[in-house]
Batch of 4 targets.
Target 1
Amino acid sequence: MKKLGIKPTINTFHPLISGCSRQGIELVETLFTEMLRFNLAPDRVVYNAIIHSHAKIGSLRKAYELYHGMIDRRVQTDNMTYHSLILGHLREGELSETKDLVDSMKAKGLAPNANTYNILVKGHCYRKDFGVAYIWCREMIENNFHPSVSICKELVAGLKQEGRLNEVLVICSEMKVKGMADWGSIEDLSAVAET
């Protein structure tokens, strides 16, 4: 394009930045700098891709710099923006910050969706914080979203390991009612919980 004298647009950079994020943060930053050289203002798609790239590698400071730049430029945040920040905190083991981010989302009128809750439940399970994962799972179900079967099984396994059989029963019962999976062991769990 450069050789032909064709000036790229912001839409040129959308697939480049998103697609190259798998190749590493250096390439993403190079493309971002190149975009700025063309006097192209980053939009929500670009910001989200770069914030996600930084959060994924644990560079939360840079992710927040970009997030604040996004706000300063009056580029509207969305669920994906917050998902990336939540994911970054979960990867770094900063679990308490996730609730603050969800509260911030809600304050901005961005309702958590199934992806939000799946990220939260899976992330807390990964960190062996099954009590908080259970709380997020309950909120998810109360908001009429369904956890993925794999995440639900991971949560149930963690709660069982910790001897939290009442929580296991609640999750299994709700999943059975929703017809999500074969939760046939619920009778066995009921017997164990009563002893």
Note: Confidence is low (pLDDT under 50) at residues 183-195.
Target 2
Amino acid sequence: MSTVRIQVSACASLSATVNHLLLRPNAVVSTNNHFSFRTLRKKPLRVSMSSVPTSQPFEIAVKASVTTPNTIGDCPFCQRVLLTLEEKHLPYDPKLVDLTSKPEWFLKISPEGKVPVIKLDEKWVPDSDVITQTLEEKFPSPPLGTPPEKATVGSKIFSTFIGFLKSKDPNDGTEQALLSELSSFNDYLKENGPFVNGKDISAADLSLGPKLHHLEIALGHYKKWAVPDSLTFLKSYMKAIFSRESFIKTRAQPQDIIEGWRPKVEG
């Protein structure tokens, strides 16, 4: 019979990962700032506690809806972070911020008045790029990283969408610029899809998905424009992302997207 010896520092409970290790024969497990696992036949394996999902919800400040009380607003960068938390099955506590009248508590943690901002290791961290990269490093399972050579795929779609949305001249080339980017992305998906990194969703999709949602709603409302049916791989991509449970749970309401873009269209 194998012997298991456990040394536990002041912890309320062991993580699921430690419990899993205890099922292995000839194991010696200890917990402090990290825990280790070793057998008589294998080299020591060290697992950082930072890779174990937290049980405490992350506090995250996000844009509040301007049309519906107590509802997440239309910021695609906020949704990107929320999608990352959802896909990694990490608990979170959203703090809804009225960006038209920023409260004092919010300006203390985000002096520039920008969202999203998340509390990580007792520090408030801004910028969706930094936040999602940090979450990937601290909680690598399930993996959402996108290979560097694929990380910029589709990255120009959002800026060309904004250019077309703001345009008041139908002959200024902004529509064609958007169509060119969408067509290139459609061709990429045809060869490499269904997602940017192949069969599994990754950080690139969680960034692009909310922006495509804004594109669909805003251009449909203000331009009576839709993604051409000929871009079949792009349309399938959008459907696949928009129908994910994580996306449905964190998406902005159409009326918020419409109101959010109104100043750029009419201003």
Note: Confidence is low (pLDDT under 50) at residues 1-52.
Target 3
Amino acid sequence: MLYRGKPKMLVLIGIISVFNCISGQTLESKWKGNPPRYICSVPGLPGPPGHPGSNGAAGPHGRIGLPGRDGRDGRKGEKGEKGDPGLRGKAGPAGKIGGRGDRGPVGKRGPNGTGGEKGFVGPAGPPGEKGDKGNRGIPGKPGICKCGSLVPKSAFSVGITTSYPVELTPIKFNKVLFNEGEHYNPNTGKFICAYPGIYYFSYDITLANKHLAIGLVQNGQYRIKTFDANTGNHDVASGSTVMYLNPEDEVWLEIFFTDQNGLFSDPSWADSLFSGFLLYADTNYLDALSEDYA
């Protein structure tokens, strides 16, 4: 019983092995994307040739060959036509002056020429000796003296009739004592220069009840400042200076500090005065004035 069944078992095992082999090859071919090929099948015809592959990398350069020989010179061409003349070149530098030759023999004297024109007067000779004193001449007519009219005049002296003027404005000295040339204006309190030159200015101010801070002003600029403190009694503040003025320059007195305007005036016994005058005029101005009169 055992013996008889053994051949059948072997046959069954062989069929199962062949089936597993065929089915395994089929599945493997499907996974790889290739058509199934069975071991036990007959080989097919060869497939078509594949596409040519890409070019390979370039090989190394070969050695540089020896230089070739120079070619033979060509034949000499025919002579061309004569060209146009070129531009004239610059003259060369002058040569050195040659040596002086020997003097030739003296020729015969020629005929006399005509007289030339009269020449210019020559320079003056040295002064001669002093001559004798001449006779006295006839007296001339008397001249007209204009000396006084050539002297510029400018002077003033003024007082004030009110007390405690406004600060930081020209003080109007309205009491005119002297005003040569009318160069001081009592309505504005300003002296206006008419003649350029050197001027002298001074002031004597009586103060009472307040301190006094007063200054001399030229064209808006303080030239001198004085300050006097009130001690309960009347006092006098004074100042003076010399300055150069041009025409149209303005000069005046002014209180330069607020509430320090103790200027006092009482016509019965006290005056506050402002004075000035021309010391001498500018020499250039005097020269021009003399030419105008001449």
Note: The helical segments are 2-32, 283-293.
Target 4
Amino acid sequence: MSNEAQRKFHILPKIINGGIAGIVGVTCVFPLDLIKTRLQNQQIGPDGELMYKNIIDAFRKTFRAEGFSGMYRGSAVNIILVTPEKAIKLAGNDYFRFHLTNADGRLPLINQMFAGAFAGAFQIIVTTPMELIKIQMQDAGRIAAQSRAKGQSVELPSTLRITQKLLHERGILGLYRGIKATALRDVTFSGIYFPLFAALNDLGPRRDDGSGGTVFWCSFLAGLAAGSAAAFIVTPLDVIKTRLQLIKKGMDEKEFSGIMDCVVKTFETEGVTAFFKGGLCRVMVIAPLFAIAQMVYFLGIGERICGIEH
């Protein structure tokens, strides 16, 4: 293959691969993501009480109260919007890695980090509205349970109603509540995850189909390890983002005016451990999500659809 052919980058199949990878990954791990959101949003009550003691307790109570369908509350908008979100993230990282590679074919670590960070920055265009709506849907059951315990009746909102309300009250910018916190989390995560994944993935054996790619099981394990590390490191940023994006708080729960206000109030009332609420659950969500997504991404479905050699 000539150098010119080797240096040609096809964006369309990458976008297709990213979209398919996102749909498969999110469908597999969404119930865990729902539990993560509820654990992160719950604040300590006036008497020190908590609705959920841990991941298992949250799973048990949620399933008992809302059934199987409740475990996928808010999944529709997430699955719909994760297609462009993962397409931007995965294809964007490849695109920036391609253009930041030196003429001699080397890609320094700092360039890998910039490529991941740029991909994370672009994805927030889709991620912020998706996460905002998803969080309201995921946490509605927790707030409703609190209200029922106090003898009040609460109607669970629908995705359409939440979207219409945000657009009516705040316009299109209402869908971008918490965008700064989202950017802080996603840029940091991508800047850590993609270089680490690439380093681990390169350690694996190559496929024997002539593509030079790593075998699929190795890509899965690399995604699992890199996803676990990056997810845990940025958990405090995810807690802040989740709390800022929750519009309807539970009873006696604090409101936050911005990132620093959220950091200060959370630290003062709940201590440093609050910034790692749902951390294990987040790792359990992100690690398999990216492991599955990376494995599906490297299957080359998009190249086959477009008739391009993988």
Note: Residues 109-149 form the longest helix (41 residues).
